[in-house]
């Protein structure tokens, strides 16, 4: 059963055709790499899936429903977007406690997700002083708060150092091994080829290749 289904999305911003028939599905239990150059429509697709942008045409479903029809959205899908809101004056831990509270989630998973993203020793530091890599980790912690079966991460390795990139790959693999559907965008194929079992390659608002990595290697 596909957990994200995007079909025929079209979205125009003025003269720019940001999405031009974007269609793909994301299955549970593997990492799906969403690869394409800057401006290809990856972020817009994720924003449409999350109901943050409205498509002119087409459908985007999470677990068979539109995001806006989900009763407890954070229990269904966790997302790390480029512009993930961060409360700079709060500590990392207080940011997550605030988020859990404001989203009606219990505080029970806060310390667990902090450990899961390796921010244990920084949990009581102000998030405003964090490096980009630490912010990415905090954003992922926020995405994991609701223990969602679906994750969407927009360029999660941005700002990570080489050690952080290795860590991120391991985290993505383990989230998929837990049976989650994980959609990860990157403008670099090389960032995802070792991690993704499924690749959706996009350009100019549409899919130009949709293949399993095994198939890709076999035909190379
Ligand atoms: P990607 O995530 O692959 O880099 P985006 O989805 O951010 O691509 O952008 C797709 C295209 O839509 C780009 O040309 C971008 O400039 C444009 N775009 C995205 N959001 C907006 C917006 N809010 N207003 C105008 N143009 C936008
Ligand atoms: P990415 O490359 O990861 O998509 P962007 O810089 O394109 O990041 O987008 C960041 C934010 O700016 C998004 O909310 C997007 O909708 C908006 N945006 C992108 N391009 C434009 C644009 N040309 N005009 C206005 N807003 C834009």
From TrEMBL:
Alphabetical keyword list: ATP-binding, Nucleotide-binding, Transport
Domain ABC transporter intervals: 4-220
Molecular function terms from GO: ATP binding
Taxonomic superkingdom: Bacteria
Membrane spanning stretches: none
Protein family membership: Belongs to the ABC transporter superfamily.
Record-given protein name: ATP-binding cassette domain-containing protein
Organism of derivation: Nonomuraea guangzhouensis
């Amino acid at each position: 059963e596909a957990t994200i289904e995007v079909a025929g999305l079209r979205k125009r911003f003025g003269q720019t055709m940001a999405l031009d028939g974007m269609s793909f599905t994301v299955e549970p239990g593997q990492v799906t790499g969403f690869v394409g150059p800057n401006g290809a429509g990856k972020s817009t697709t994720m924003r449409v899936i999350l109901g943050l942008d409205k498509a002119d045409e087409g459908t985007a479903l999470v677990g068979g429903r539109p995001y806006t029809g989900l009763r407890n959205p954070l229990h269904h899908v966790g997302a790390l977007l480029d512009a993930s809101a961060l409360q700079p004056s709060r500590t990392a831990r207080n940011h997550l406690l605030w988020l859990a509270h404001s989203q009606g989630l219990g505080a029970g998973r806060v310390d667990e997700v902090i450990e899961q993203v390796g921010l244990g020793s920084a949990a009581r530091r102000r998030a405003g002083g964090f490096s980009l890599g630490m912010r990415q980790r905090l954003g992922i912690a926020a995405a994991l708060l609701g223990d969602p079966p679906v994750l969407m991460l927009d360029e999660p390795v941005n700002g990570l150092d080489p050690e952080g990139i290795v860590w991120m790959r391991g985290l993505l693999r383990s989230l998929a091994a837990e049976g989650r559907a994980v959609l990860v965008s990157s403008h670099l194929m090389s960032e995802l080829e070792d991690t993704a079992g499924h690749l959706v390659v996009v350009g100019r608002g549409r899919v130009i290749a949709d293949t399993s990595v095994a198939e890709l290697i076999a035909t190379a």
